[in-house]
Amino acid sequence: MANSYSTAKSDLQLVPFEISRKHQLAEDVYLISVPRKSDFEAGQVVAVSLSDGQTPRLYSIASGNAGPEISILFNIKKDGFLSPQLANSKEGDRILVSAPFGNFTCRDEKACWIASGTGIAPFASMFFSGQWKGKTLIHGGRTVDSFYFQDDIAPVMKESYIRCCSQENGLGLYQGRLTSYLKEQTYLDLSQKYYLCGSPEMVVDVRDILISKKVPFENIISEIYF
Ligand SMILES: Cc1cc2nc3c(=O)[nH]c(=O)nc-3n(C[C@H](O)[C@H](O)[C@H](O)COP(=O)(O)OP(=O)(O)OC[C@H]3O[C@@H](n4cnc5c(N)ncnc54)[C@H](O)[C@@H]3O)c2cc1C
Question: What is the pLDDT of residues 140-184, one digit of tens each?
Fold first, then answer.
């Protein structure tokens, strides 16, 4: 299926960067950073590959737009091509990265951010870029360690930051899937925008719930990690 990124991918120029930092955030989940050499808007993506001629994969930038680095957050697709190799890379290794692009951006308006798993990345970038005021962030994950960046976000966004944990219990966590949390809500602001990011299944399910609760279609903006 064509999407707004397929055309862009073939036109992209990727240039070498050295990995400046690599962190493991959870089992099979990594944060990799390279020096920031261009400006970007929080919510944009970069294309990444390991050598010329490979089809690049897209990753949301997960870092703030004023920081010294561009970071990406990814999980390993065990039978995937790039993500297992990226997970094996070391600081100092060379990867190819495009200039930032994309329009999944959100300015200062009141909005609700909804993410599953590594779909938190663009919202982390928005958070670290200082765009969290007037926002509600709903993050779904399976385990208590799957709320990446929670130590940064929780003290700042407080009760506007809702973590929905489907397989474990934990202090301050809603126990259940984020779709269950949304279904239970008796009031949703119909005038604000809802930004969705994550797997195709999550985005489709959440979109259906929001529409069933009378959120106008044009107020639902999605970034799908296909
Ligand atoms: C706009 C956008 C932003 C994204 N941002 C992020 C992000 O921030 N973090 C993140 O983790 N991911 C993100 N993704 C997903 C990312 O681009 C990659 O798709 C992901 O990392 C997997 O890449 P891979 O090379 O390891 O797997 P791939 O080799 O691309 O394979 C992906 C999956 O498809 C299956 N597959 C591959 N080929 C076939 C085939 N021929 N038939 C059937 N199944 C097949 C594989 O088994 C695997 O499970 C984003 C995607 C998009 C479109």
Answer: 999 999 999 999 999 999 999 999 999 999 999 999 999 999 999
Q: Which among 2, 212, 225 has a CA at the least distance from the CA of 117?
A: 225
Write the DSSP symbol of residue 99.
P
Q: Which of 98, 132, 156 represents a domain boundary (last residue)?
A: 98
Instruction: Give the residue numbers spanning the domain of 204.
Output: 111-224
175 lines ligand 1 (CB under 6 A): no
CA-nearest residue, atom 13 of ligand 1: 59
Same domain membership, residue 118 and residue 192 = yes
Distance of alpha carbon 113 from alpha carbon 96, whole angstroms: 30
Testing ligand 1's pocket by substitution, the residue of 6, 51, 59 carrying the most ligand atoms inside 8 A of its CB is 59
In a domain, 143, yes or no: yes
Confirm or reject: Cβ of 118 under 6 Å from ligand 1.
Answer: yes
* Cα 125 from Cα 106, distance rounded (Å): 11
Cα dist. 122→100, 139, 224 in Å? 12, 12, 12
How many angstroms separate the CA atoms of 101 and 103, rounded?
Answer: 7
For the chain, the domain total comes to: 2
Judge if pTM exceeds 0.90.
yes
Ligand 1 centroid to Cα of residue 80, in Å, is: 7
* E-strand stretches of 14-89: 14-18, 21-26, 29-35, 45-49, 57-60, 69-75
Residue nearest to atom 46 of ligand 1 (CA): 80
